[in-house]
Design goal:
The chain has 3 helices and 8 strands. With 148 residues, the chain is an alpha/beta fold. It has a single domain, classed as Nucleoside Triphosphate Pyrophosphohydrolase (Alpha-Beta Complex), CATH 3.90.79.10.
Length: 148
């Protein structure tokens, strides 16, 4: 199953954290994270998936998305998943959450790194985001990380 993960940033260089519901079917607990979602037949490509998922989960309109050459492979709810990582730029408008999330917070990079639940190396995440906030790509070729 193809999926996306996107970091959302506004014109003030603040990153959006979403607090997921404890009713999450995979994790069954609440924590701070980012927009993720699966490719659907209505999507023409993964950029369309990013735009659709951001709008569904936050009501924000993506102005620009950049693929960050980063892929995660893992198993979720019995399915093999390949998740492509993006950064998406939006205006800081009103966030309207759907049923997947119970709260949100705009934060600067340091607070984002501190609060987000991340399954990999947070130092690497910080370096990726420092470049991504400048619309640069940290990984010069695709980096694939597999999680069991």
């Amino acid at each position: 199953m193809d999926k996306i993960l996107t970091f959302i940033v506004n014109e003030f260089n603040e990153l959006l954290l979403l607090k997921g519901s404890s009713k999450d079917p995979q994790f069954k607990e609440s924590f701070w994270y980012v927009v993720t979602g699966g490719y659907e037949d209505i999507d023409k490509n993964l950029i369309n998936t990013v735009k659709r998922e951001v709008q569904e989960e936050t009501a924000l309109i993506v102005k620009k998305s950049i693929y960050l050459n980063w892929i995660f492979k893992y198993k979720s709810l019995g399915k093999n998943c390949t998740e492509y990582v993006y950064i998406s730029f939006v205006n800081k408008d009103d966030v309207i959450l759907n049923e997947e999330n119970i709260d949100y917070k705009w934060c600067k990079l340091e607070e984002f790194i501190e609060k987000t639940r991340w399954f990999g190396d947070k130092n690497e995440l910080k370096n990726v985001l420092i470049d991504a906030l400048k619309e640069k790509i940290y990984f010069k070729s695709e980096k694939v990380e597999e999680y069991k």
